[in-house]
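Thread: Newbie trying to understand structure tokens

Hi all, I'm a second-year student working on a class project, and my supervisor (Dr. K.) asked me to get a predicted structure for one chain before our next meeting. I've only ever worked with sequences, so writing a 3D structure as a token string is new to me. If someone could post the tokens and maybe explain what I'm looking at, I'd be very grateful. Here's the chain:
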Amino acid sequence: MSKFKLKRWQRILLIVLAVIVIVPVVLFIILGLLPADGDPVLAMESVIVGAQHAADGGSSVDTAFPEMKIPTGSGGNTPEKQELGKLLFFDPILSADKSMSCATCHHPDLGFTDGRMTAQGLNDVALKRNVPTLYEVGYKAALMWDGRAESLETQMTIPLTSSDEMANNEAQLVAALTAIPDYVDLFAKAFPDASEPITLQNVGYALASFERTLVAHNSPFDRYAAGDFSALTPSQRRGFALFRSGATGCYKCHFAPTFTNGQFEITGVPGADGKLDDSGRGGITSVTTDNYAFMTPTLRNIALTAPYMHNGSMATLEQVLDFYIKGGGAGMGIEVPDQARFVHSFELSDQEKQDLISFLYALTDESSKPAIPSSVPSGLPVVEAKDNPGRELALAANAGGVAVTARAPMTLTVTPDVTIQSVVDQAQNGDTIEIAYGTYSERVTIDQSDITVRGIPNAAGEYPVLDGKMGFSDGIAASGDNFTIEKLAVKNYKGNGIIVDGAVGVIIRDIYVENTSLYGVYPVHSTNVLVERVEATLIRDAGVYVGQSQDVIIRDNKAWANVIGIEIENSVNAEVYNNHTYDNSTGIFVDLLPQLPSKVSRFTKVHDNIIENNNHHNFANEGEIGALVPEGTGILVLGGDDVEIYNNTIKDNRTVGVAIFSTATAFAPEMIDIGPNPERIYVHSNTFANNGYDAASQLTDLGISGQDIVWDASSWDLKFDQPGASSFPPILPSSSWADLSRKGYWQIVHFVISKLG
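---
Reply by user tm_fold:
Sure, no problem. This is what the structure looks like when written as tokens:
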């Protein structure tokens, strides 16, 4: 046989085919092998989600304190260091001219502040900022209003060496202390392993050890949290409910047990000229979006630390509350860049203001306040005792409630001639409260555990009605474990219909909720939550909301004419099924939002729901989360991970049937403190019809037309088994694709979307 030989044109053809076919395949494989790193996955033991009870807690609001941060190498907080630190704290020997001690500005009788608008330095010079309290300072990760110090030890050197404060230096200080025999002995006992015990560093260790003893953990609130419900007055209990309410949002920055989020927030507090005149955190970081941000202070012993804010511009708690009621600086017409999203205007009656301030007084505890020593080793004069008018106000407010004699659980009945709250106040753990048919206009606070609240319908099957007439923040606020509420109608409240905070075992069922402003039913920070057979309408955020919770079932509910029908925010293990959401702006919202204690949204199943005609005008207020969602959306996943969406009927939503986006598309980069990308999403076996026919501007401004499915290609590990569904991108990776194929395809799509637009 003659040897086979290709003709020239055949060789050229093969080369062309190789270029067209083989080269792209090789490139695709290479792209699939390139790194496609996902967001860090938090270990479940480090996740803060669901109820956070203290190990030996007496109630659902008894949350454990974090561990104090003690630097390695300090030798720990020994009694010897604490005693030495106390003497140093009160001794003017620390200042260069021996006129000032730490206690001069952090006086124990004034809540470890100085009672002035701003600090007073050497020679009576007025400094820039208010003196912050030292109560609970051991829990802080950053010190000073602007966070310039990363530990108590480093913070100490700032006032000690500052020319307008104590104006000292290490050599002078060490020499002064070494010249005093008592200090030589005390330092030797406190630092027995040190060859030179008296050093600036050891002064810092001793002062920090003392300051870590300044805690306020035995306040009336703490006794209440431990299970003594008589520790708070009725006014304080109502105030606590307001504090936790979505209407005020206080707890979002000041959450228990430290009553601070430890973050820097921009609230828009003006200077004397009515403008923002202090760059705050931005002066340390040089980051523009940190300008005017200040450390969130603890609210413990807040009654003792007037005046308030970083510049001491507000003399009373009433003034502080009015500032936030107006919506912070922005609400007062001040130009406030990047004001904290939790700061928004709200309404309170005079009674509600009084209740909220009464609750703040319940955070008062001076049991760890040290006695001012009669003398110090230097022999220099120590600060004198001072009166504090806030102490008397707190004492008057903290009169306590009525102690209840223990008895067996029983059923209590509410009739229309009494208030629900009056009966709740008689209840004990394990009771059932039955509400006779009628209309009740009030706000109800329930602290007890193992409580069932049940409405008794009339002959026509109509539920008893709680009608707030827009005069109260919430309809019902509960915090006890194993709380069940059923067969009630809740209408016309300024904050929420029903809020349950921090509980284990929550059942909300057979509820009609209408026009309750932010949320209809609102279990948050809870574990083992069931929401079923709720009808929710005319609510400007979510009709049915579950947030920062774990092990959640949302089923058989109906939500319509809200901004969001059903929302599952920053939660773990949620199942959403057999619900009907229609005529909302967005039907179902699975989201992972930043700046919250829970940093995860994982393992959500959304199945067997009817999600149709969610084309309602978005009527959320500017700045509220609800304002983010586009009108005409069936299901929106924003940053949530491990979400499975299947067997749903999704139709007639004008913008999109299912949208999957990164949280980073909705928030500025500096706000993102979570892994923002939606990962491990599986969409399959849904029925789509007539979605995306008139897309909202949020989509069309991106150059994307309406579709059944829209994916922003922010992460690679998604699967779509939806043959026949319209989509963006036009080709979606399915479960039959190998990981290498999905990664390679994602590299291409992600590049096109993120780089080319």
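A couple of things are worth pointing out once you decode it. The chain has three domains: 1-33, 61-403, 540-756. Residues 424 and 446 are 7 Å apart (CA to CA). Feel free to ask follow-ups in this thread.
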